[in-house]
Design brief:
With 456 residues, this protein is α/β, with parallel strands linked by helices. It has two domains: 67-98 and 372-454, Aspartate Aminotransferase, domain 1; 120-355, Aspartate Aminotransferase, domain 2 (3-Layer(aba) Sandwich), CATH 3.40.640.10. The chain is 45% helix and 12% strand. A seven-stranded mixed beta sheet has the order 2-10-9-8-7-3-4. Strands 1-12 form a two-stranded parallel ribbon. Helix 3 runs antiparallel to helix 13 (357-387).
């Protein structure tokens, strides 16, 4: 607060004063009499709430996120043998985070380019990034791209892409119900609920076989009201690692189109599952090839290791170029009051790699190396359990694909492994294969063996 202004006055005896001066002096004395009491106590009056409890005193402490909370617990554990298999982030054989060589190379090029600036991107993001992201998921020769029926906007990784898509559908689509697979990534329910959609589920995972409940999936989607939105994991289903075969995908496509359901793909692991960018995009491309409409959320967190850069895209395939243009105009109205426009650095890295043949080839080699290491960890864990004679059929470990394995362990067994072996994972028994190494596989196998042979 500014200090009160003290106005100097003169007495009538100081000199001759005109009637105008006398009026000004009278006003000045009045203001001084008002302002001087306000100057006491440093001139600051107490807030009405200063003497009472916080206006937020009614809040209770929120629980930790069930996935991110695993890392919080892991960090507090002083054990030298502790193992974090909770959060889905790639680790090297030495257990260290990995920055791809091609990413480091491009970042250096960007730093040395003095023509670059830090100006705002458009609401929809970096144009090259959007164009190249659409080609990556749909294919460079996609008819939808050739016919300008695709609108793509840069978003804040996969989560932000899902949220923008969800809010767009809640505002402009005639159905507000979205069907999610059971189980699914824990954040899906919250993202779509807060976006304004009503969430229902369809059967996906069969605990008895630790595989796909294909009949249950078809039955539940067949019973969904016409026009409902259906979330589909493009590949490497999280958390189960169980994917339909291409033949099963074709049956799913036929049912969805027959029922006039709207598919919304979550593509978080393109190229990271099998090591092939094209193979992992095949389910999405099946749906694009029939000319129908769909949404796809893409993330570059896993396949380019850009976790903290939050780089993603939302693409909507429409029936015509005119509709796609109008859809983009409305997407801008969703994004503008949410975060205004996306960040530039991560998207610039992606665009540089996708548009340069040599850089792109370098990326695919590194990407396949990550996928192959995870496949190797699956085989090593399976072999270790088999060599120990661990009861049960553990073949699902090598049949599942991608970063995660749904072990089939229950919450009690998970708790036992945490308490006795300092192994951290989500309570549903999901483990991140990327968090394993040849050195830690035996420790995990010992813990699983103990948990299922009466250790609990």
């Amino acid at each position: 607060m500014r200090p009160p202004v003290i106005l100097k006055t003169t007495s009538l005896s100081d000199s001759y004063t005109s009637p105008c001066d006398r009026r000004l002096n009278t006003l000045a004395r009045h203001f001084i009499s008002v302002l001087q009491p306000m100057a006491s106590n440093d001139g600051i009056s107490a807030s009405p709430t200063a003497a009472s409890d916080s206006v937020f005193n009614h809040l209770v402490r929120a629980p930790e996120d069930p996935i991110l909370g695993v890392t919080v617990a892991y960090n507090k554990d002083p054990s030298p043998v502790k193992l974090n298999l909770g959060v889905g982030a790639y680790r090297t054989e030495e257990g260290k985070p990995l920055v791809l060589n091609v990413v480091r190379k491009v970042e250096q090029l960007l730093i040395n380019d003095l023509s670059r600036n830090k100006e705002y991107l458009p609401i929809v993001g970096l144009a090259d990034f959007n164009k190249l992201s659409a080609k990556l998921i749909f294919g460079a020769d996609s008819p939808a791209i050739r016919e300008n029926r695709v609108t793509t906007v840069q978003c804040l990784s996969g989560t932000g892409s899902l949220r923008v898509g969800g809010e767009f559908l809640a505002k402009h689509y005639h159905q507000r119900t979205i069907y999610l697979p059971t189980p699914t990534w824990g954040n899906h329910h919250k993202v779509f609920n807060l976006a304004g959609l009503s969430v229902k589920t369809y059967r996906y995972y069969a605990p008895a076989t630790r595989g796909l409940d294909f009949e249950g999936l078809l039955e539940d989607l067949g019973s969904a009201p016409s026009g409902s939105i259906v979330l589909l994991h493009a590949c490497a289903h999280n958390p189960t690692g169980v994917d339909p075969t291409l033949e099963q995908w074709e049956q799913i496509r036929q049912l969805i189109r027959l029922k006039a359901l709207l598919p919304f793909f979550d593509s978080a692991y393109q190229g990271f599952a099998s090591g092939s960018l094209d193979a992992d995009a095949q389910p999405v491309r099946l749906f694009v090839a029939d000319g129908g409409e769909l949404l796809v959320a893409q993330s570059y967190a896993k396949n380019l290791g850009l976790y903290g850069e939050r780089v993603g895209a939302l693409s909507i395939v429409c029936k015509s170029a005119d509709v796609a243009s109008r859809v983009e105009s409305q997407l801008k109205l969703v994004i503008r009051p949410m975060y205004s426009n996306p960040p530039i650095h991560g998207a610039s890295i992606v665009a540089a790699i996708l548009k340069d043949g040599d850089l792109f080839n370098e990326w695919t080699i590194e990407l396949k190396g990550m996928a192959d290491r995870i496949i190797s960890m699956r085989q090593q864990l399976f072999d270790a359990l088999r060599s120990r004679g661990t009861p049960g059929d553990w073949s699902h470990i090598i049949k599942q694909i991608g970063m995660f394995t749904f072990t089939g362990l229950n919450a009690e067994q998970v708790s036992f492994m945490t308490n006795e072996y300092h192994i951290y994972m989500t309570s549903d028994g999901r483990i991140s294969m990327a968090g394993l190494s040849s050195k830690t596989v035996p420790h995990l196998a010992d813990a699983i063996h103990a948990a299922v042979t009466g250790g609990v």
